[in-house]
Amino acid sequence: MPAAPLSDADLDQALTDLPGWSVRDGSLTAVFKADRAAIPGLYAAVAAAEDEANHHADIRVLYGTISFALNTHDAGDAITALDTALATRITTLATEHGARPDAS
């Protein structure tokens, strides 16, 4: 059974626990800044977490930033609890690798 889309209220509540994350173009998104040397290790850690969760982000790396966009394809590209759980894990991994949410 596919994951159910989050209600607006559930998504708003989840965002209160996800600093630096927002909804953009139907995806849960965040951009983190880090020393360029830390980005490959962060990417590798996120890739392992994605494989473990069997859920994957759209990831873009540009210089000292790494961007994530999450939605659940099996739920019609809606944002689900799978996305908020992976966003939480990505935030933890980003912190562990010295990355911080990009406020710009």
Task: Give a verbal description of the structure.
- This protein is an alpha+beta fold.
- It has helices at residues 8-16, 39-53, 81-96, and strands spanning 22-24, 27-33, 58-62, 65-70, 100-101.
- Strands 1, 2, 3, 4 and 5 form a five-stranded antiparallel beta sheet that branches.
- The longest helix is centred in the last third of the chain and has 16 residues, at 81-96.
- The termini are far apart.
Give a brief description.
This protein has 104 residues and is of the alpha+beta class. The protein has three helices and five strands. Strands 1, 2, 3, 4 and 5 form a five-stranded antiparallel beta sheet that branches.
C-alpha-based Rg, rounded:
13 Å
Shape field: globular
What structural category do the secondary elements indicate? alpha+beta
Number of strands: 5
Query: Residue ranges: pLDDT <50 for 5 or more in a row?
Result: none
> What is the assembly state of the chains in this entry?
single chain
Order of helices and strands: HEEHEEHE
Tell me the number of helical segments per DSSP (H or I, 4 or more residues long). Answer: 3
What is the terminal separation in angstroms? 38 Å
Helix fraction bin: 25-40%
The fraction of residues assigned to DSSP E strands is 15-25%
Question: How would you sum up the major sheet?
Answer: 5 strands, antiparallel
Mean pLDDT: 96
